[in-house]
Design brief:
With 469 residues, this protein is mainly alpha-helical. It has helices at 2-38, 45-73, 78-98, 100-112, 116-174, 193-250, 261-270, 293-335, 357-361, 400-433, 435-461; strands spanning 258-259, 284-285, 340-352, 369-382. It is elongated and about 150 Å long.
Length: 469
């Protein structure tokens, strides 16, 4: 029994060792690639080749994402989109390969997506996605329901006018105009039926045109808004990263609240580790994942606001499904309306008798002489849907767009919790690219902590000092 257990334990230990060695090598490769990418001037041919490969891969990825965004999301033509994507790829390769601050700016834009600026970009994309796909579908289903109303109105009006016409013909058949003194049945429709039908047609057509115009206006406005918002927020993302880099390089106090391993090493070298024994509330340990109480409170408030946006999204998607169900029920009801055939048969016989009381005395029926005999049949159909009025199909709700919008909003919610770590990562990226500036900032933070320590120590010694008076 022990042999299989020992074999299993040996296999587990061997697999764990291989997994640890593979992970260690992968992390070493990633670290070497990051060192080569963050070097202003490559120190060797290997670093130069690695830097060129990374810049080329990022340029290709940027060109592909630009082409996909222009064609699939912003609906630009293929030719201009390919040209713009190619130019963007070339500019990205040249900028990343020749300008080290551009590489830093590109790297800073990734954690900036986890900050408030990136969250605005994600929320704008989700909102515009719903406005482009879901809102026009709701209006299209309302248009389909309005088309059912129009067709039923026109069909019922035509059937009413046709029935009135047929009954008028039947009345004329009962009392021909050519017979003087005849008693007939007169039936006629008061008013102009054609004018009433034309008026109803114009009213329903105007309603449908208003729905169609509103749907087209919503699509155009949503597409234009998406294009403008995308450009503005991408520009804002780059400007925010550039602003952070500028402040990092010019202001030693800006975002200098992180206790990094460089600070810990410097304090250990000069024997000043007591400065961080009771650190101030504003000092954050960059390597510790724990959030402060202030950071947690700010995250909860922002999550509450994003929850309201998620609820509004859910209500919009529910309205899309409700509009689809109503439109489908209306169209199905209209399609199932039967055509009712109507047949009106009129048989009219007239006869006269002479001295009819004489046969009556002998209990015999009086002889009749036929005078007039008429037989007429009228056939028509009651149609509740006008033949020339097509029914529009109900638009099924889209699944991909609401899911994409919901996913973007969930990512935006996650950035609320990850914003603190994104800020720390942004500081670490800037420190990797500009080591000399980071050394100055560490010395400035060291001096700031020393001043704080001396001030607190002086306040503690002040009550015990003798008075001169």
């Amino acid at each position: 029994m022990r042999a299989p257990r020992e074999i299993a334990e040996h296999l587990i230990r061997t697999g764990w060792r291989f997994w640890y060695l593979g992970l260690h090598k992968a992390l070493a490769l990633l670290q070497a690639a990051w060192v080569a990418f963050s070097q202003p001037v490559p120190a060797s041919c290997g670093q130069l080749l690695t830097q060129l490969l990374l810049c080329g891969s990022l340029a290709i990825a940027a060109a592909g994402l630009t082409y996909h965004g222009l064609v699939s999301l912003l609906l630009y033509p293929l030719g201009p989109s390919a040209m713009v994507a190619t130019v963007c790829g070339l500019l990205a390769f040249l900028g990343l390969g020749l300008v080290p601050p551009a590489r830093c700016l590109f790297a800073l834009s990734v954690p900036t997506l986890g900050t408030e600026q990136g969250r605005r970009l994600l929320l704008s994309w989700s909102t515009v996605t719903l406005a482009i796909v879901v809102v026009p579908n709701i209006l299209a289903n309302m248009h389909a329901a309005g088309q059912v109303l129009r067709c039923v109105t026109e069909g019922s009006l035509e059937s009413l006018l046709n029935t009135t016409h047929q009954l008028h013909r039947a009345a004329q058949a009962l009392g021909p105009d050519g017979q003087a003194g005849s008693q007939g049945l007169t039936l006629q429709a008061q008013g102009n039926g054609s004018a009433f039908r034309l008026h109803m047609f114009r009213v329903t057509q105007q309603v449908l045109e208003n729905f169609s115009g509103l749907e087209s206006l919503a699509q155009v406005a949503a597409l234009g808004t998406q294009r403008a918002v995308t450009g503005l927020f991408m520009l804002g993302l780059l400007v925010d990263s550039a602003w952070y880099l500028h402040r990092y390089l010019t202001d030693l106090q800006f975002d200098n609240i992180y206790a990094t391993w460089q600070l810990a090493q410097q304090l250990a070298e000069v024997g000043a580790t007591h400065l961080v024994t009771s650190p101030p509330a504003w000092l954050l340990w960059a390597a510790r994942p724990r959030l402060s109480q202030r950071e947690l409170l700010r995250c909860l408030l922002r999550l509450g606001l994003l929850t309201l946006l998620l609820m509004a999204t859910a209500v919009t998607v529910a309205m899309d499904h409700v509009a689809f169900l109503l439109a489908r029920a209306a169209v199905g009801w209209a399609q199932e309306l039967p055509t009712v055939p109507v047949t009106l048969t009129i048989k009219y016989d007239a006869a006269y008798t002479i001295l009819g009381f004489i046969p009556f005395l002998f209990n015999q029926p009086p002889p009749e002489s036929p005078f007039l005999s008429a037989h007429s049949s009228f056939q028509w159909e009651l149609r509740f849907i006008a033949p020339g009025c097509p029914l529009l199909p109900a638009g099924r709700p889209h699944t991909a767009a609401p899911l994409a919008a919901g996913a973007l909003q969930l990512v935006a919610c996650s950035t609320v919790l990850l914003e603190t770590y994104a800020r720390r990562l942004r500081h670490s990226i800037a420190a990797s690219f500009f080591t000399t500036q980071e050394a100055r900032r560490v010395r400035h933070l060291h001096a700031r902590l020393q001043r704080r320590y001396d001030r607190h120590r002086g306040q503690q010694l002040a009550p015990g000092t003798p008075s001169c008076s």
